[in-house]
Structure formats: C-alpha cells, structure tokens
Amino acid sequence: MNSRLVLFAALLSCAVALMACALAGLRGVGGAFVLGLVPAGVLLGLLIAVRQRASQWRRDGLFRLSSGAWWSGSIVGGLLVALWAVSEVISYLFAPGGCDGGACGVAIVLVPAAFVGGLPLGMLVSSAVLGAVGMVKGLKPVAVQGVLAGTAVFGFVLFMMLGR
Questions:
Q1: CA distance 28 to 157
Q2: Does the pLDDT value for residue 164 go beyond 60?
Q3: Using CA atoms, how far apart are residues 119 and 86, in angstroms rounded to an integer?
Q4: Which of 22, 54, 119, 125 falls 20 to 30 Å from 37 in CA-CA distance?
C-alpha cells in the first residue's frame, strides 16, 4: 500500500506542478515553460509505471478504472485544455490593442499551435488525475485525505510563487 500511496501522491503533485508552470508561462513568468518540463517528465515516467502495474492491480481488485475509460477520459481532458488554450489565444488577439497594425495574421499560426500544445498537456494531466482516482480503491481514506490536503496546500503555494 505504501508504494501505491506514494504513486498516488506523486501523480497528483506532478499534475498540479505542471498546470502551475503552464499557467505561469501563459502569464508571462520567464522560464516557467522550461521549468514545466521537469514535472512533465516525472509525470510521464509515473504514468508509465502505473500503466504497467494497473492490470495486476485490477486483478487484485485495487484499481477501479478500465483502460477504455482511462484512455477516453484523457482524450476528453486533452481536448478541453486545447480548447481552453485556443480561447486564450483568441481572446488575446481580439482584445483591444491585440491586433494593431494587421498583427491578426499570426492567428493562423497561433491558434493551431495553442491546440497542438494544449492537447498533450491536457492528456497528460487528466491521465494522471484519472490514474490517481483509479488508485484510490484499496488505500486508506485517511491517507487519501492527507494526500489531497497536502496537494491542495502544495498547489496553493506553487500558484502563489509562480503567479507573480
């Protein structure tokens, strides 16, 4: 149970760190996108480890999520983040002063780039959260609540630090 609890905590913490870095990068914090590569790499490694163990955990009754639900949920999460990124680009371009001097021509490049950039980010984060949700079965409720509280505090502090 301890290794599963550590994986649960690491999945949630890395997902929060990755989203914090992405949001800070969108707000113009220098180096936030590069900093976001660290939790993205760790999260990818964790997801590979969980994916390899998930079939055994399902047989033992310790993992609730099916592969189809996991895959389709991560695609839906990826599409939602991609659409959010596209809406951010469009709102920036069509804000007052956003398209001065014919600069709206870059929308042809920026909108698809936002979609292509947001899709894997959303898939990675939603896959991590769904994997963590699938791992809840078999963990002690007090431990899960402690991890969730710790992740919330970690996310708050990280958003405050990167949000300047």
A1: 18
A2: no
A3: 10
A4: 54
Q: Which DSSP symbol is given to 21?
A: H
For residue 37, count other CB atoms closer than 10 A to its CB. Answer: 11
Tokens representing 40? 């993205």
User: Cα separation of 97 and 100, whole Å?
Assistant: 6
What is the amino acid identity at position 163? G
C-alpha span between 22 and 78 (Å, rounded): 14
The CA distance from 4 to 131, in Å, is: 11
d(CA 126, CA 156): 19
Q: What is the pLDDT of residues 23-74, one digit of tens each?
A: 777 777 777 777 778 888 888 888 888 888 888 888 888 888 888 888 898 9
Angle (CA) 5-126-140 rounded to 5° is 20
Phi, psi of 95 (to 5 degrees): -75, 160
- CA–CA separation, 124 vs 78, rounded Å? 8
> Do 147 and 6 form a contact (C-beta atoms < 8 A)?
no
What tens digit of pLDDT does each residue of 73-93 get? Answer: 899 999 999 998 888 888 877
